[in-house]
Amino acid sequence: MTALDLYAQPAALPASDAARIGRLLGLKEDKALDDVTLADQVSRGLNPTSAAALGQVIGMPSVLGKLIPEATLRRARTSRKPLSREMSERLYEVSRVVDAVSRTYHGDTAAIVRFLNRPHQLLGGRTPLAMAQSSSAGADAVINLVRRADAGFAV
Q1: Contact between 114 and 108 (Cβ < 8 Å)
Q2: Reported pTM
Q3: Predicted confidence pLDDT, tens digits, the chain (155 residues)
Q4: Is residue 155 part of a domain?
Q5: What is the structure's pLDDT at 96?
Q6: Most exposed residue of 52, 62, 118, 140, measured as fewest CB within 10 angstroms of its CB?
Q7: CB-based burial label for 12 (10 Å; 0-12, 13-18, 19+)
Q8: How far apart are CA 50 and CA 73, in angstroms?
Q9: What is the domain range of residue 25?
Q10: Phi then psi for 30, rounded to 5 degrees?
């Protein structure tokens, strides 16, 4: 079962944003993941395996190079050190967007990938994924777009 499969069963999804995002990032579930714990992990630097976990969800080409340079990821893996705070925050922001879109599309992988990679007029003609990769404000713009769609507004 992939991380997105759970979105098809809303009752099986963790209730908190932090727990769902942690699952997308492949974080260990040995304890309840709350907002503070997730924030601390992102601040200290996520394990390079988080990039691979997110890559399995949205496709590695969307993660490598665009979010994290391949050489940076390779160095972190080789040295067995966490990713930098900046790289970890990038992964976190894109995971927030993937979580919001996945809830809207109920885990339909094809629809999620299509939405993330199709240019959208309300995002200045950029794709939601590119917007989310650009900055935390870009991720917020995509999440707000998804929320408007969920509320029934034409987007």
Answers
A1: no
A2: 0.91
A3: 678 888 998 888 888 999 999 999 999 875 678 999 999 999 999 999 999 999 888 887 777 788 899 899 999 999 999 999 999 999 999 999 999 999 999 999 899 999 999 999 999 999 999 999 999 999 999 999 999 999 988 77
A4: no
A5: 97
A6: 118
A7: exposed
A8: 10
A9: 5-150
A10: -75, -15
Contacts of 26 (CB under 8 A, 6+ apart): 3, 49, 50, 52, 53, 54
- State the residue for tokens 């997730």: 38
Which three-class secondary structure string do you get for 111-144?
A: HHHHHHHCCCHHHCCCCHHHHHHHCHHHHHHHHH
Instruction: For residue 118, give the amino acid letter.
Output: R
Long-range contacts of 119-123 (CB under 8 A, 24+ apart): 120/145, 120/155, 122/155
- Residue 64, phi then psi, degrees to nearest 5: -70, 130
Q: How many domains does the chain have?
A: 1
CB 100 within 8 A of CB 142: yes
Percentages (nearest 5) of helix, strand, coil residues in the chain: 65, 0, 30
At 134 the pLDDT is: 93
